[in-house]
From TrEMBL:
Coiled coil: none annotated. InterPro entries: Rossmann-like_a/b/a_fold, Universal_stress_UspA, UspA. It holds the Pfam family Usp. This is Nucleotide-binding universal stress UspA family protein. Belongs to the universal stress protein A family. The lineage of its organism: Bacteria, Bacillati, Actinomycetota, Actinomycetes, Pseudonocardiales. Residues 6-136, 148-282 form the UspA domain.
């Protein structure tokens, strides 16, 4: 068997990804695989009178990568850590890496955090062929009902199967339980004189979909404690609320193209903007690669 695929983490010039680097290092240690730190930079251009020359830019990037390596090794000294620079945009560059997991951070810029997440985290998630984890800045949060558990959003047995696989694998790796959450809302009547959905029937159908989706994964991971959560709420709001204090939040993505904003859909995009724990986005093209490649 060859070397296992690495966990890849992206870093940028402003050092906004230190939480992501540390999280990725711990994850690589748990997976017993290497960690690759990647910095994406624009193609070189002719320096102007006020622009730094290529040598100055190289010094800045090397200092950035050196600090990232040091931070990673402080978290997990046993992990093999490499770093490199790639030319191009961060989203396509990170998404093209051969990895078992890609990790990105979010810049702690208050109200415009959503735009930053949308520009990198969403874009990487929509392109990558492996799961992508978006790590928010660390901060104190009041833990929710799924403290230290893995939370996974469930739509149905087929659509949610990739996300459920990642969630149960992550829970087994960490020795924690899974909270499988399905949010539902009865449809209102089309007009004032119409008849809307029967709430009891809608809830029963939602409960059935949730149980059907989780059952095969319960059989595959019998030692993982499972809680089913049926919440009458907007899915993004329900998932972000459940994420407070969770070990990981896992959501699926319907992305299948190149227009990043619409790819993940409103739920995934909303969750990435407001989640209060690391969030794993599992796109339709994502495959879980934890084992070593054949030599």
């Amino acid at each position: 068997m060859g070397e296992p695929d690495p966990v890849v983490v992206g870093v940028d010039e402003v050092g906004s990804a230190w939480d992501a680097v540390e999280w990725a290092s711990a994850e690589a240690a748990a997976r017993e695989c290497p960690l690759a730190i990647v910095h994406a930079c624009s193609p070189p251009v002719a320096p102007g009178p006020f622009a730094p020359g290529p040598e100055d830019a190289g010094v800045v990037v090397e200092a950035l990568l050196r600090e990232a390596r040091e931070r990673a090794r402080r978290v997990a000294p046993e992990v093999e850590v490499t770093s490199r620079t790639i030319v191009g945009g961060p989203a396509p560059g990170l998404a093209s890496q051969h990895a078992q997991l890609v990790v990105v951070g979010t810049r702690a810029l208050g109200r415009i955090r959503s735009a930053i997440v949308g520009s990198v985290g969403v874009a990487v998630s929509s392109r990558a062929t492996c799961p992508v984890v978006v790590v928010p800045p660390w901060g104190e949060v009041d833990p929710g009902p799924s403290r230290s558990r893995v939370v996974v959003g469930v739509e149905g047995p087929v659509r949610s199967s990739p996300a459920l696989g990642v969630a149960f694998g992550a829970a087994a790796q960490r020795g924690v339980g899974v909270t499988a959450l399905h949010a539902w809302c009865p449809r209102p009547p089309a007009d004032l004189g119409g008849i809307g959905d029967d709430p009891a029937a809608t809830e029963a159908a939602a409960r059935h979909r949730l149980a059907d989706a989780v059952t095969p994964w319960r059989r595959r991971f019998p030692d993982v404690d499972v809680r089913l959560r049926l919440v009458p709420d907007d899915p993004a709001h329900a998932l972000t609320g459940e994420s407070a204090g969770a070990a990981l939040l896992v959501i699926g993505s319907r992305g299948h193209g190149c227009v990043t904003g619409a790819l993940l859909g409103a739920v995934s995009h909303g969750v990435l903007r407001h989640a209060r724990c690391p969030t794993s986005v599992v796109g339709p093209a994502a495959t879980v690669r934890r084992r070593a490649r054949a030599a």
